[in-house]
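Memo to structure team: turn this sequence into structure tokens by end of day. - J.P.
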Amino acid sequence: MSTPSAKLLVFVSGQLACVKIVGRANFTSSIDFKTVLNELLDKGYTCFILDLAECVLMDSTFLGVLAGFGLKLSTARNGDGQNEHGIELLNPNARIAELLENLGVIHLFKIVTGPLALPAEVQAHTPVAVNEPTREEVSRNCLEAHKILMDISPSNIPKFKEVAQFLAEDLKKKA
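Reply from structure team:
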């Protein structure tokens, strides 16, 4: 059974990039999400807003990708990964906020509620289409995301240790 991927809508203006996530943000959409964020970063965008008003759920892989980008951006901005939020999460629902808190990654983000206020000169940005990822690419992305969650917060190790071991063994079989 294939779970539909979240839809990603991107708006840009100046140094600002806003990504609206609609639907279920899961492991299948996490590869596109990572690609979009890295593409925007490579193009020089430094301020990121993720509009989560229509994001109903994030699985652990998507959260790991998000946390990894938050850590990367936070560290790039001030060298030590502390105090400055490179990503603003706009209107996360209670379940997503609770997951961020429970996984020990909420400190990487600025949580904001209210309407999305984009500059008047905002432009829609069409993300680069990513080919359908192979099973190996999905497994590698899932493993990396779960390792990030375990590295950021050691309390996540018991939650994801077995998943990470399974994915690592599965990748070894494919090599």
